[in-house]
């Protein structure tokens, strides 16, 4: 997320009432999660396990809960609770703006697009030409849809990321300030949910077709011409490359990559990155050749046990 105008380190530190290391006028251009940071961005880190990753990232301002040596060309914001202060900044620069109408006056809707009754379209939404948005669809603030997009009834674009910090008093939600971006010629079935990015975009690329009852988590990128069948659940920060096919009830864990033209069979559980150009099934998912060898080996267990039993009885 980029700020409406450039800020400086001193002003940001005053907003969250924390110490800082760096020049007062050190430029601060935005804030992002670590996987999408750029120079000028703030990234937050609150666990020693990830200090080095944050300090060595592209971010030039690190919001951290310990005084450490500041890398050359960077600045630090020293906070007792970086998670809380990241939320403070999110709320300051991107506060929730309630809508007063079913279709916001600030929404831009292209020529030839059809909006069916009982649809909600939030602030600053952009919808391209010749789209069809069916009834009871909710499109939250700042979403961007290309041309020739079809969205069926009951789908929600832009709900909050499922991202919480476990505190003694309960779960604390990380505020979501990102967007959902749907490119041209995408079809989305009924009752799907596509969460917005925490600070970046959740993106569905051109030509992808999504069945009913599919969940796509925050900051995930679905490539071009993918097919995703019903009841698939994809966690946050996943990259699905172009022309991937995912069949029904597949579950995919966060932060992994599915290679181009991979095919994942129904009910598979994907817990690691998968190479493109192969077919996968099972829990955990593996390519067909490896999985069939595994199944064949398992089927031999009774025979092996019987052989061992006979040997022991001699």
What does this structure look like?
With 314 residues, this protein is an alpha/beta fold. It has two domains: 2-93, Udp-n-acetylmuramoylalanyl-d-glutamate--2,6- Diaminopimelate Ligase, Chain: A, domain 1, CATH 3.40.1390.10; 108-291, 3 Solenoid (UDP N-Acetylglucosamine Acyltransferase, domain 1), CATH 2.160.10.10. It is 16% helix and 31% strand. It contains five helices and 34 strands. The chain has helices at residues 9-16, 51-55, 82-93, 288-299, 301-313; strands at residues 2-8, 19-21, 27-31, 41-45, 61-64, 75-78, 108-109, 114-115, 120-121, 126-127, 132-133, 138-139, 144-145, 150-151, 156-159, 164-167, 170-173, 179-182, 187-188, 193-195, 201-204, 209-210, 215-216, 221-222, 227-228, 233-234, 239-240, 245-246, 251-252, 257-258, 263-264, 269-270, 279-281, 286-287. The strands form five sheets. The chain has a ten-stranded mixed beta sheet. Strands 7-10-13-18-21-24-27-30 form an eight-stranded parallel beta sheet, with no helix packed on it. An eight-stranded parallel beta sheet has the order 9-12-15-20-23-26-29-32, with no helix packed on it. Strand 4 (41-45), helix 2 (51-55) and strand 5 (61-64) form a beta-alpha-beta unit. The mean pLDDT is 96.
Q: Quick recap of the structure?
A:
The chain is α/β, with parallel strands linked by helices and 314 residues long.
Question: Topology of this structure?
Answer:
Blueprint lengths: L1 E7 H8 L2 E3 L5 E5 L9 E5 L5 H5 L5 E4 L10 E4 L3 H12 L14 E2 L4 E2 L4 E2 L4 E2 L4 E2 L4 E2 L4 E2 L4 E2 L4 E4 L4 E4 L2 E4 L5 E4 L4 E2 L4 E3 L5 E4 L4 E2 L4 E2 L4 E2 L4 E2 L4 E2 L4 E2 L4 E2 L4 E2 L4 E2 L4 E2 L4 E2 L8 E3 L4 E2 H12 L1 H13 L1
């Amino acid at each position: 997320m980029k700020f409406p105008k450039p800020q400086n380190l001193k002003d940001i530190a005053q907003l969250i009432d924390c110490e800082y290391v760096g020049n007062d006028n050190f430029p601060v251009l935005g804030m992002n999660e670590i996987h999408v940071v750029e120079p000028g961005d703030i990234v937050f880190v609150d666990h020693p396990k990830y200090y080095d990753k944050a300090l060595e990232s592209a971010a030039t301002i690190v919001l951290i809960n310990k005084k450490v040596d500041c890398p050359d060309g960077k600045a630090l914001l020293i906070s007792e609770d970086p998670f809380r202060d990241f939320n403070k900044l999110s709320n300051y620069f991107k506060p929730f703006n309630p809508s007063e109408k079913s279709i916001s006056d600030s929404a831009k809707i292209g020529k030839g697009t059809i909006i069916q009754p009982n649809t909600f379209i939030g602030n600053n939404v952009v919808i391209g030409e010749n789209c069809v948005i069916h009834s009871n669809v909710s499109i939250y603030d700042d979403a961007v849809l290309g041309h020739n997009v079809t969205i069926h009834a009951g789908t929600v674009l832009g709900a909050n990321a499922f991202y919480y910090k476990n505190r003694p008093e309960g779960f604390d939600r990380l505020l979501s300030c990102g967007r959902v971006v749907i490119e041209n010629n995408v079809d989305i079935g009924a009752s799907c949910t596509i969460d917005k990015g925490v600070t970046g975009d959740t993106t569905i690329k051109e030509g992808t077709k999504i069945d009913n009852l599919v969940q796509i988590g925050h900051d995930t990128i679905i490539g071009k011409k993918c097919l995703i069948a019903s009841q698939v659940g994809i966690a946050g920060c996943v990259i699905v490359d172009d022309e991937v096919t995912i069949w029904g009830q597949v579950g995919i864990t966060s932060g992994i990559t599915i290679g181009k033209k991979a095919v994942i069979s129904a009910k598979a559980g994907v817990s690691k990155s998968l190479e493109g150009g192969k077919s996968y099934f099972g829990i955990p998912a593996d390519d067909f050749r490896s999985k069939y060898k595994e199944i064949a080996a398992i089927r031999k267990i009774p025979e092996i046990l019987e052989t061992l039993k006979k040997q022991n009885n001699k």
